[in-house]
Amino acid sequence: MWRLSKEKAIGQKEIHSVENHLQFLNDVLTKQYQVKVVLDEESVIGMIAYNEEEVSQLYIDPAYQGLGIGQMLLKEAKNNSSGTLSLYTFEVNTLAQQFYEKNGFRIMARGTENEENLPDIRYEWERE
């Protein structure tokens, strides 16, 4: 789900192997962030990795996008935040930009500091 959602969002194949993704999930992500998943009857359909200041990952299975799953996960991150959250999304991912802006995030910076060497956007949300 994670790989499929990302590949669809940015229009290119994942640069990491499945094994590297599993290692990242088990050895990095779960140690630095809260990781929550949403399941349907048989599989993971959404996931978020966040801490008090940052959303590191937020992916929803493309077949389940637009159903409120991402909003539910983002609300949990906001509720458990220090009052601000930052995150990055790829500039090519216009659906993510619309989603984050609809959910109160503002553009703070633009760059290309990512492994994919794609233009990205840094967003920030602040509790009112």
TrEMBL record:
Q: Does the keyword GTP-binding apply?
A: no
Keyword entries, A-Z = Transferase
SUPFAM superfamilies of this UniProt entry?
Acyl-CoA N-acyltransferases (Nat)
Please list the residue ranges annotated as the N-acetyltransferase domain: 1-128
Tell me the superkingdom of the source. Answer: Bacteria
Q: Name one GO molecular function term.
A: acyltransferase activity, transferring groups other than amino-acyl groups
Coiled-coil positions are none
Q: Does the keyword Transferase apply?
A: yes
* Name of the protein in question: N-acetyltransferase
- Organism this protein belongs to: Paenisporosarcina cavernae
